[in-house]
Amino acid sequence: MATNDSTTNVKRLQVRRYKPEENPETHYLNQEKGLWAWLTTVDHKKIGLMYLGSIAFFFFIGGVLALLLRTELLTPARSFMDADVYNQVFTLHGAIMIFFFLIPAGPAVLGNFILPLQLGAKDVAFPRLNLASFYIYVIGALFTLFAIVTGGVDTGWTFYTPYSATTGGNVMAMTLGIFILGFSSILTGLNFIVTIHKMRAPGITWNKLPLNMWGLYATSIIQILATPVLAITLLLLTMERALGIGIFDPALGGDPVLYQHFFWFYSHPAVYIMIVPGFGIISEVISTFSRKIIFGYWAIALSSLAIAFIGFLVWGHHMFTAGQSSLANMVFSFLTFLVGIPTGIKIFNWLATMYRGSIDMKTPMVYAMVFLFLFTIGGFTGIMLGALSVDIHLHDTYYVVAHFHYVMMGGMVMAFLAGLHYWWPKMFGKMYSEFWAKVSLALLFVGFNMTFLPQFVMGSQGMPRRYFNYIDQFQSFHQFSTIGAYIMGVAFLLMAGYMLHSLLRGKPASSNPWGSRALEWQTASPPDLHNFHHTPVVINGPYDYHKPMSEFQLGIATSHNGHHAGEAVDVSKTEKEQA
Amino acid sequence: MSGHHISSAKFLWGVAIALFILTFITVAVTWIHIPSPWNVVVAIAIAVVKALIVSAFFMNLYWDSKFNVLLFVMSVAFFLLMIGITLLDTLYRTDPIPSF
Amino acid sequence: MSQTSSTEEKLDHLKHYFVDSDQQFEASKMGMWVFLVTEILFFGGLFVAYIVYRSWYPELYLLASEELDTFWGAVNTAVLIGSSLTVAMAIRSAQLNQIKGLIINLWITIGLACTFMVIKYFEYSEKFAKGILPGSAYSYDGVEHEKANIFFSIYYMMTGLHGIHVLIGIGLMIWLVFKAKKKVFHSGYYTPVEITGLYWHLVDVIWIFLFPLLYLID
Ligand code: HEM
Ligand SMILES: [Cu+2]
Question: A1, A437, C68, C206: which could join A363 in a potential S-S bond, CB 3.0 to 4.6 Å?
């Protein structure tokens, strides 16, 4: 009977194997019915899907805007847009892609769906806050749409003062929208931190936490530490426009460079909000499809935290030419190089995981490899930009544009797509066409490099960013780039096609189509509304491919899921980490 | 678990009285005109002590889990980082506010 | 949903995705602390602006803070500390199952918070009357410094945002009173009281810094 071994603090639990149900009749997608049930759901999986729908919408809008920009750039002079319109279009493209697509893509979409599953929890710690965060996102989005229809915004996604304090258009609605959006991001981060700390299933100690969880944990920390600073920045900017408080406006005695400090204190860490969840996804995918224990578990886990931390020290590399003191320039340049270290550690550990693994080139794995290739290019060019003397030349040229598209699109978008394809069967219980997925991926890869590789060359030859016209010398580069963008457009349409097909006609997926050992695969596809019918118990690491599958499907044997202390718990081989 | 610490009423009153006294001191020191920059140092030091008292004994951090303490420390540390690094720029510019 | 437990414990509050009351309580408290982190960094931005401008124009701060009334600032500091004490007492009452004490302490706290706002109101209106308005509406010429407007912008942003937090706190505590009257809280469940208390103490801590930084520059 109840053996609470007080000397070793080990609680003994009786466990048994729970084989996941195959193709269940009822699951989270059909347990609650009707639109209202969807809109008011507190289920983390459904909220994740609602976010997925929203960011897909914004990705579409942002993508169309990008194609418009690229089309305008087919000819050196005006093709079909005026300079003013062009400015508005690139502002919207940037703001939408960053704030409405890429920042929620990692945590709010895939994180929401997967995090409680990987922890063996029934939900996140605060499900209602989670739903609130979604609606806050929607309200923020409405503000932005309102800004677009009432005059547009032409400041660039960075809203630099003094221009943003004086230009026409509806900058206030836009900044308020993003201010509101920030709360959505904060709530997600808050929820995740508490959930990871408090809701892990018995046996999931910190060293058995899937690396995806470490990635999301690091991301959440950045979200809660950096986002409030964005909020105050945008609030001050709004006040600058509304009342003329003058803190950032030189015409009123303020300092525009201070605005840049504020903005980048958030926005450099924010690039890690975008990419670090990707690191988590890539770790899962690479280990699963290499059928091998991950190489350097702690190195990968801690380097995520290290990146989160160092990411706060480097913001001034965006301000090398803005008039900050040369002392600050040197310090920031030096600190920027440090970011390369943990990033490099990750890349090498992933490569080492693949080394001599039995690699299965399924779509998610190919995406992960594309990620490794493109992200490395993006990272290296980032280091080059971090070198002071080089950046003086390259700042505000297409070289920077190419750099951040390699990290954000080549890095995070590829990682996101890897994750989406990886967890798609779990989300919907359907498989997609492997063939069409690979065709689309190939197009994407070719299109991506065609679009952005020439931009490195253009940039280093002096083509400035954010102009709607250019000198003839660059025309062939621009045209090449535009054709690449069209190819990417086709690739995404194709992707939408086969995903839709999968939803409607896809072959049913098994509970664990990739043979993964991670916890989210040890329940039905799609899972039950409460994720597991039992309380999972974990005794192995998530990447222990040398151990039999049966050891990964354990759960508490008593019928009442171990709720409420004082229940009879019997001896078994399982130990529970003391709470 | 340390989550449910119950302080005695006497203790809570003691904490509040300490805070009142510190408030009085921080006002009183302005009457004796300590030369700058020490006046600022004293004012901040007293405020820090007061904040520590509130967080430790009113917010119960003294008895709370280490992680909650860490959160608090981290937020202050990152604030210091933000101001510290920003000052590296603003204090060492040739021209405080670049003219445009 | 949660199973009926064999003990006498009241468990209506326990959400089904938590294992027990303690887990739920600890999670909520940690959540509040994480939120407080964001609050500290949110105000942190304003403190950065404050410090940067103070390091550039120390004489501006000396001159401009003359316009702020140290006496009323000190009174408000005392009022907030008093309210911190009463929230702490409210939590204590809840822990001891003294629902009446809880409600009384909450009312006193609300009263003190309102006192704070009333004093702030008089401070603001006195300044508005002189032409010390926020932003470009600033029209006072009693401060001999070309950047006087910036000092007062910072002043209004800091105290204004702090004031909004006080108002939110008042709202939260009124809500707590209603809940307490409905007998929702008892010694086994008083999480909302506890975390509102944490929030309120932080509002106090921020004022503890605002007071010397704005009023006590001599
Ligand atoms: C090895 C890591 C990285 C380093 C050293 C690095 C360095 C830099 C530097 C120095 C700049 C400024 C260039 C300039 O404006 O002159 C820059 C710009 C940028 N980087 Fe990175 N970066 C890194 C990773 C990333 C990642 C992971 C992302 C996003 C996921 C990212 C997104 C951006 C963006 C969006 C900009 C342009 C901002 C703008 O002015 O609009 N970077 N990077
Ligand atoms: Cu950066």
Answer: A437
For residue C137, give Cα distances in angstroms to A207, B86, C132.
58, 29, 8
Contact between chains at B71 and C22 (C-beta distance less than 8 A): no
CATH (domain of C25): 1.20.120.80
Distance of CA C13 to the CA centre of its chain: 27
Average pLDDT over residues A307-328: 94
Phi, psi of C126 (to 5 degrees): -65, -40
pLDDT tens per residue, range A260-300: 999 999 999 999 999 999 999 999 999 999 999 999 999 99
Q: Which protein residue's CA is at the shortest distance from atom 10 of ligand 1?
A: A386
User: What rounded mean pLDDT belongs to chain C?
Assistant: 91
| A29-33, B93-97, C64-68 — most confident range | C64-68
Query: Could you tell me if residue C191 is inside a domain?
Result: yes
Is C13 within a domain?
no
Would you list the domain boundaries of chain B?
A: 9-91
Pick B23's closest partner by Cβ from C34, C41, C78: C78
Compute how many other C-beta atoms are within 10 angstroms of the C-beta atom of residue B25: 13
Q: Which residues of chain C have pLDDT under 70?
A: 1-9
Average pLDDT, chain A: 91
Alpha helices in A199-319 (DSSP H): 211-242, 256-290, 297-310
Residue C206 belongs to a domain: yes
Contact A257 B86 (CB under 8 A): no
How many angstroms is it from A184 CA to the middle of ligand 1?
24
Chain C partners within 8 Å of B79 (Cβ): 40-41, 44, 47-48
Q: Calculate how close chain B gets to C37, using CA atoms only, in Å.
A: 5
Q: CB atoms < 10 A from the CB of A68, how many?
A: 18
ipTM rounded to 2 decimals: 0.92
Q: Is the pLDDT of residue A502 over 50?
A: yes
**C64: containing domain:** 21-215
Share of chain A above pLDDT 90, in %: 81
A7-578 folds as: Cytochrome C Oxidase; Chain A (1.20.210)
* Cβ-Cβ contacts under 8 Å for A226 (sequence gap 6 or more): A265, A266, A269, A270, A273, A312, C41
- pLDDT tens-digit map of A347-391: 999 999 999 999 999 999 999 999 999 999 999 999 999 999 999
Angstrom CA distances, B96 to A29, B36, B92, stand at 59, 21, 8
How is chain B split among helix, strand and coil, in percent rounded to 5? 70, 0, 30
Judge whether A162 is closer than 8 Å to chain C, CB to CB.
Answer: no
Q: Is the pTM of this model over 0.90?
A: yes
Whether C42 is covered by a domain: the verdict is yes
Q: CA-to-CA distance for A222 and A300, rounded, in angstroms?
A: 17
Measured CB to CB, residues of chain B less than 8 Å from chain A are 1, 67, 74-75, 78, 81-82, 85-86, 88-94, 96-100
Q: What is the torsional sign of CA A366, A370, A375, A380?
A: positive
Pocket test of ligand 1: the residue of A276, A303, A317 to mutate, having most ligand atoms within 8 Å of its CB, is A317
Q: How many angstroms separate the CA atoms of C6 and C23, rounded?
A: 19
- Torsion angle (degrees, nearest 10) of CA A388, A392, A394, A396: 120
Domain count within chain C: 1
Segment A213-223 shows an average pLDDT of 96
Residue C158 CA to residue C152 CA, distance in Å, equals 10
Ligand 1 site residues (CB inside 6 A) read: A 158, 271, 274-275, 317-318, 336, 339-340, 343, 379, 382-383, 385-386, 391, 394-395, 400, 403-404, 407-408, 411-412
State whether B71 and C211 contact (CB < 8 Å).
Answer: no
Token pair 């305008």 is found at: A72
